[in-house]
Amino acid sequence: MKKKPEISLRGRALQYLARREYSRAELRGKLLPHVQIDEGCEAEPPAALDALLDDFTARGWLSDARAATQWVHAKRSRFGTQRITHELRQKGIAEDLIGAALPALKEGELEAARNVWQRKFGILPLDAKEKARQMRFLQSRGFSTDVIFKVLRSDETEC
After folding, report:
1. Which one, of 59, 50, 58, lies nearest residue 27 by Cα?
2. What are phi and psi of 43, to 5 degrees?
3. Tens digits of per-residue pLDDT, 31-80?
4. How many CB atoms lie within 10 A of CB 109?
5. What are the helix (H) ranges across the chain?
């Protein structure tokens, strides 16, 4: 049985980037296990990984700004500003890029919260227990308490 040829670090990185945008920290984390030296196997040192990531960034193939934009665009209709901000930080996106995305996120947060609430519940809570349940759900989605109160006070369930 033939053994599959080992994919180079560069080839592996290009395969990841062909599927979706990655932040530098995220791609580094995915590639790092393939850099470590195994017994008897020749692997590229970690310095080569940083050089590869620098090269990809210089060529425009790797961009934290594009990764942040894509992530915000994909998640903004289902999650609130707090959750999206937290996930961007987890992906290693710089604070200045997160700050640049915040105004657009906050602008559409009320509408997103209404849509999420409408799909999940559709009717205003009748008692305190149900109101608390709906509030917890929206908080778990990362919506701010101000937005949650506006959604639950709203008489317009059609919005």
Report:
1. 50
2. -125, 160
3. 998 876 544 445 556 788 999 999 999 999 999 999 999 999 999 999 99
4. 22
5. 9-19, 24-31, 46-59, 64-75, 81-90, 95-107, 109-120, 128-140, 145-153
Rounded Cα gap, residues 80 and 82, in angstroms: 6
φ/ψ of 21, rounded to 5, equals: -75, 140
- Spatial separation of the C-alpha atoms in residues 85 and 105, rounded to whole Å: 9
The pLDDT tens digits of the residues spanning 67-87 come to 999 999 999 999 999 999 999
Residue at 154: amino acid letter: S
Residue 9 has which token pair? Answer: 């670090």
| Domain parsing of the chain, residue ranges | 9-59, 66-107, 110-153
Phi–psi pair at 14, nearest 5 degrees: -65, -35
